[in-house]
Amino acid sequence: MGDFTFSSDFWSWWVIVLTVGNILGCWWLIVWTMKKRAGEAASGDVTHHTWDETLQEYNNPLPRWWLWLFYITLVFAVIYLVLYPGLGKFRGVLGWTGEVRYEKEMAQAEAKYGPIFANYAEQEIPALAADEEAVRTGRRLFLNYCATCHGSDARGFPGFPNLTDDAWLFGGDPASIKTSILNGRGGQGLMMAWEGQLGEQGVDEVTEYVLQINGREVNTELARKGQQHYQQMCVSCHGIEGKGNQALGAPDLTDAAWLYGGSPGTIRESIAKGRNGRMPAHKDFLGEDKVHLLAAYVYSLSN
């Protein structure tokens, strides 16, 4: 509860009253249930509660040590709520917060591992990619921060590039890979939706032409009409021959590497609806030294 923000004093006091009330209620319940009552049989004696004619209940209260466990638990709860946040807006006398704990742990990690990454950062990416220890460390970074999108084997998923081949949207050289991780990719490389300008028929025609330059069997008449649309609307990004443009992040349409899938239906959807995948920037999160090593690992996957 240390990071929870209460929007009003009412809810803060609501939590305080409920929490303190429950602790006091539990304390009273234990005392009340263990209180000896008038006429109660002595410990070990029959209580005169009888079931099924002869089945009787003995008075065997909980052992004292067991009872004290409940009291100790309640005392622990009180001490915890005094020291740490848990009572509404009261933050505890220690001033603990999740942010403070996180920053402290990060500072400790930086003091321990920072020099290691700084040493790696002084080496060129191709050299690191040939260093087995550096690659193992880079792989651990990849599994922690990149595998969710690109997969543990780095072969990607629909919408997330395969990093083990040579089909790079923004370039596969060390500098380009590092830039992609540091600054992310987004505004460039976005595929706009063309259905509004082309109409359904026009989208079908461009789809046929894209399939044609990809080396597949197509309806030549539709492809011929699609080529005209392509030259008007697509050539500025994908090039006359459909080879793409890494400066813009425009993919090569002639190879077998399809980011969102290469079926006719998926290609048609990409043309009609557009694509807006984004690669988040990791510079502020990881720091340049770690990104340098991570880039070396990614570079090693296809080199």
From TrEMBL:
MF (Gene Ontology): electron transfer activity; heme binding; metal ion binding; oxidoreductase activity
PROSITE patterns xref list: CYTC
Binding sites annotated in the UniProt record for heme c 2: M191, C234, C237, H238
Cellular component GO terms, alphabetical: plasma membrane
Pathway the protein contributes to: Energy metabolism; oxidative phosphorylation
Co-factor remark: Binds 2 heme C groups per subunit.
Gene3D superfamilies noted in UniProt: 6.10.280.130, Cytochrome c-like domain
Compartment(s): Cell inner membrane
Cross-referenced InterPro entries: CcoP_N, CcoP_N_sf, Cyt_c-like_dom, Cyt_c-like_dom_sf, Cyt_c_oxidase_cbb3_su3, Cytochrome_c_Oxidase_Subunit
GO biological process: oxidative phosphorylation; proton transmembrane transport
Cofactor: heme c
Domain Cytochrome c intervals: 133-214, 221-302
Binding partners and assembly: Component of the cbb3-type cytochrome c oxidase.
Protein name: Cbb3-type cytochrome c oxidase subunit
